[in-house]
Amino acid sequence: MSEIADRLNGRTVIVGSGLAGLMTALALAPEPVTIVTRAALGAQTSSAWAQGGIAASLGADDSAELHLADTLTAGDGLCDPVIAAGIVAEAPAAIAALERAGVRFDKTADGSFSLGLEAAHSRRRVVHAEGDGSGAAIVRALVTAVIATPSITVLEGHEARRILTDESGVTGLLCAGDNGAVTLPTRRIVLATGGIGGLYEASTNPMGNFGQGIMLAARAGAVLADMEFVQFHPTALNSRRQPLALVSEAVRGEGAVLVNESGERFMAGVPGAELAPRDVVARAISGELARGGRVFLDARVALGDRFATRFPVIDALCREAGIDASRQLIPVRPAVHYHMGGVATDAAGRSSVAGLWVAGEAASTGLHGANRLASNSLLEAAVMGMRAGCDILAGPAASTPVTQAAYPLPVVADASLVRPIVSRHLGVLRNAGAIHGAVASLLPLAEGDGPAADPAIVALLIAVFASLRTESRGAHARTDFPLKRAEVVRRAMTLAETLEIARATASHPFARSA
Ligand code: SIN
């Protein structure tokens, strides 16, 4: 065994250092744990890029019941209401825990939380830290707390490549480090690896995130849920930058409006207008772009000279693209932003594989249903990170891990072959031909052992789940099945089951001709 593996043998291993991973590690203290992270602690995480904040019913006119009602409406019938009720009820406690960990949330002159409004929220309830730099401020504070916690060991520059299992569950984690393969023997792994934005060409997420947690869990036999539900943020800054910069919904929350190239406010007649649920706004913008039009966010009247003070991060991103948002229109387009599906977990973050917990975007708890309510993602990451940590602490002490043999590292993953397929066939609007075409193209990559295999597995899961949902619901919009079915189905399958369906789909003549 390597010196690192020897030293860290048997500790709980947390993969990922965004909000969910950092909160799990802090919740477990003083129990010794190891955080495995590809980049520097907290860097290259979607959490650190979040401009929105954390949704919590802290206003005098608000309640957990109202927060739940908005969450269930956005989720379009597919949320697990019990899970959702529990998570939104814990939001004020999560904010308090974050404050204890050192996060300084924005407050008004009288010391109460400064609450922002985002789409599909019936109340002002989004708590920020340093305005539109919220994610960075929260992650920075937690990184400081983690570094100051002696029980947490951080392995930076280490990439999790495979979860090792035996008949009783998790036995270890195979990682790639600076000097080659490192196997960490452990009976307890928490995956907090973030989302799948890197599977798409137009994304607001770190491009390196192709759904590693989903791939690792799927290869280990875990059940996946609701994989077809990919959320497209309506207003990414339309530029050549990759990934695209986000123009937060909070800008529309402050009154900015959407107009097309003719200056027409095309959302005006839609219930909720610019603050309608995200999927509704994303489809409307896609429609404008599909007819060859252009779409802009107009903040000139609502914010004008206040833009740079209210949204300093977005102002800088606009200026980088040559736009003065206080005086000019901001060109926008939809881009993939969040994944509601993921590894199926229970209320404590446990997956179907013994010893494997999943928290944050990589998980599918049932909170988000078919469409996530804005700023419920950092909330879920904080609550579920804490819950996973507490669940591990409450469980039996880990049995002595088995000594691991040396395992060869799989090839380094590369999503570049997968991105064009996913972007073309699994976007805002889908149909059977496109989805089956994606399955046929992705299956050989997913079953191979080349660099595309790991991302192709995640993409194939999305495609197969999408093929089975013959309705339009939330973020999953099908031009061939535009209506919602009366019966509500949450689907959960393993990779093996998905591959079986993919093989049958790929050999269907419709798939070959797509
Ligand atoms: C935004 O600021 O528009 C994004 C917030 C979120 O995705 O929750």
Structure description:
The protein has helices spanning 3-8, 19-28, 46-49, 64-74, 81-89, 91-100, 134-147, 212-219, 249-253, 278-290, 307-310, 312-320, 376-394, 418-425, 432-447, 453-468, 495-506, 509-513; strands at 12-15, 33-37, 54-55, 115-116, 126-127, 152-156, 159-166, 169-177, 180-185, 189-191, 224-225, 230-237, 257-260, 295-298, 330-339, 342-344, 356-358, 363-364, 429-430, 477-478, 492-493. It is of the alpha/beta class and 514 residues long. It folds into three domains: 2-51 and 134-195 and 340-394, 3-Layer(bba) Sandwich (FAD/NAD(P)-binding domain); 234-336, Flavocytochrome C3, Chain A, domain 1 (Alpha-Beta Complex), CATH 3.90.700; 411-514, Fumarate reductase/succinate dehydrogenase flavoprotein-like, C-terminal domain (Methane Monooxygenase Hydroxylase, Chain G, domain 1), CATH 1.20.58. The strands form six sheets. The protein has a five-stranded parallel β-sheet with strand order 6-2-1-10-17, covered by helices on one side. Strands 18-16-11-21 form a four-stranded mixed β-sheet. Helix 4 crosses helix 5 and helix 16 crosses helix 17 (495-506). The longest helix has 19 residues, at 376-394. It is globular. It starts with a helix and ends with a helix. The structure holds succinic acid. Residues 51-52, 248-250, 337-338, 374-375, 377 line the site of succinic acid.
Give me the secondary-structure topology:
Layout: H1 3-8, E1 12-15, H2 19-28, E2 33-37, H3 46-49, E3 54-55, H4 64-74, H5 81-89, H6 91-100, E4 115-116, E5 126-127, H7 134-147, E6 152-156, E7 159-166, E8 169-177, E9 180-185, E10 189-191, H8 212-219, E11 224-225, E12 230-237, H9 249-253, E13 257-260, H10 278-290, E14 295-298, H11 307-310, H12 312-320, E15 330-339, E16 342-344, E17 356-358, E18 363-364, H13 376-394, H14 418-425, E19 429-430, H15 432-447, H16 453-468, E20 477-478, E21 492-493, H17 495-506, H18 509-513
Parallel strand pairs: 1-2, 1-10, 2-6, 10-17, 16-18, 19-20
Antiparallel strand pairs: 3-5, 4-5, 7-8, 8-9, 11-16, 11-21, 12-15, 13-14, 14-15
Bound molecules: succinic acid.
Succinic acid binds at residues 51-52, 248-250, 337-338, 374-375, 377.
